Automatic annotation (TrEMBL):
<comment type="similarity">
    <text>Belongs to the esterase D family.</text>
</comment>
<dbReference type="GO" id="GO:0046294">
    <property type="term" value="P:formaldehyde catabolic process"/>
</dbReference>
<feature type="active site" description="Charge relay system">
    <location>
        <position position="241"/>
    </location>
</feature>
<dbReference type="InterPro" id="IPR014186">
    <property type="entry name" value="S-formylglutathione_hydrol"/>
</dbReference>
<feature type="active site" description="Charge relay system">
    <location>
        <position position="276"/>
    </location>
</feature>
<dbReference type="GO" id="GO:0052689">
    <property type="term" value="F:carboxylic ester hydrolase activity"/>
</dbReference>
<protein>
    <recommendedName>
        <fullName>S-formylglutathione hydrolase</fullName>
        <ecNumber>3.1.2.12</ecNumber>
    </recommendedName>
</protein>
<feature type="active site" description="Charge relay system">
    <location>
        <position position="161"/>
    </location>
</feature>
<keyword id="KW-0378">Hydrolase</keyword>
<comment type="function">
    <text>Serine hydrolase involved in the detoxification of formaldehyde.</text>
</comment>
<keyword id="KW-0963">Cytoplasm</keyword>
<dbReference type="InterPro" id="IPR029058">
    <property type="entry name" value="AB_hydrolase_fold"/>
</dbReference>
<dbReference type="InterPro" id="IPR000801">
    <property type="entry name" value="Esterase-like"/>
</dbReference>
<dbReference type="GO" id="GO:0018738">
    <property type="term" value="F:S-formylglutathione hydrolase activity"/>
</dbReference>
<dbReference type="Pfam" id="PF00756">
    <property type="entry name" value="Esterase"/>
</dbReference>
<keyword id="KW-0719">Serine esterase</keyword>
<dbReference type="GO" id="GO:0005829">
    <property type="term" value="C:cytosol"/>
</dbReference>
């Protein structure tokens, strides 16, 4: 599968590539950004690991690329960063009938929809965790540099808000396959089945049978998925975040982990005065970068 290059921007010591490609899963053109660190251009012999960053509601690949400041950390440790889009897009893609911002376009919730009219295009779980990594691997293989970038094996995942939910959900769902070496999140929604954002999205994409929601709900998954590798999940949450108490509730993941192999392994760090914005995210990206670099074997 080939990518079209929409732009190439010099950033820090490397370059940010702005790409798009035709997705078989979403049946649309999908945009994705990838930051290639300075180590990519020095042609080092060891493979460069990859961190996948999932953005939140209303975002595109541009938001985190421009405002999260992952690039200096990528250069420091030697990993690449992939910024997927948050939903399929296009005139034919169904949107929120209520014209809201928390469902539909820019709000795919990283699930595979099973309900009409969304199931044709909203295949974000399969797209992000299967099709996109394989497509990137094939693309760079054709460029002659697949041996430099490890899109498939030595990888980690993180995200913000809706993307934080998506990161933790996928990390737990794919734990038996050891898909991701580590997982972190910024202000994630950890129990979507019990909050307004999640109820609306899960109901619209997955239907009204609440038992089917548990496949994606981190608070439910953590009670059934075994932590066989002594993994930790790192979470930062701002105490001045207006969504903290009503929609996000990261402490619920710690509560759900009690009595399981994950008890004591959910590190929720509350940080006073920080909100839900990229001022918050960019402040704590260095801590998350170090956390993942250790798990990816870079430290």
């Amino acid at each position: 599968m080939s990518f079209q290059v929409d732009g190439e921007v010099a950033s820090c010591g490397g370059r940010l590539l702005k790409l798009n490609h035709e997705s078989k899963e979403t049946k649309t053109q999908m945009s994705v950004n990838i930051y290639l660190p300075q180590q990519y251009y020095t042609k080092q012999t060891s493979k460069i690991p990859v961190i996948y960053y999932l953005s939140g509601l209303t975002c595109s690949p541009q938001n985190a690329s421009e405002k999260a400041f992952w690039q200096p950390q990528a250069d420091k440790y030697g990993f690449a960063v992939v910024f997927p889009d948050t939903s399929p897009r296009g005139d034919e893609v169904p949107d929120d009938p209520e014209n809201g911002w928390d469902f539909g376009l820019s709000a795919g919730f990283y699930v595979d929809a099973t309900q009409d009219p969304y199931k044709k295009n909203y295949r974000m779980f399969s797209y992000v965790h299967d099709e996109l990594p394989r497509a990137l691997h094939q693309h760079f293989q054709k460029q002659g540099s697949s041996s430099q970038l490890d899109f498939l094996d030595n990888i980690a995942i993180t995200g913000h808000s809706m993307g934080g939910f998506g990161a933790i959900s996928a990390f737990l769902q794919l734990r038996s396959a050891n898909k991701y070496k580590s997982c972190s999140a910024f202000a994630p929604m950890v129990s979507p089945s019990g909050v307004q954002w999640g109820e609306k999205a899960f109901g619209g994409y997955l239907g009204n049978d609440i038992t089917t929601w548990k496949k994606y709900d981190p608070a439910a998954l953590i009670q059934t998925v075994k932590n066989t590798n002594n993994d930790y999940i790192l979470i930062h949450q701002g105490t001045s975040d207006p969504f903290y108490k009503k929609q996000l509730k990261p402490e619920l993941l710690q509560q759900a982990a009690k009595g399981t192999t994950w008890e004591g392994k959910i590190d929720v760090q509350l940080v006073d005065g920080f909100d839900h914005s990229y001022y918050f995210i960019s402040t704590f990206v260095p801590k998350h970068a170090e956390f993942h670099a250790k798990n990816l074997g870079l430290i």
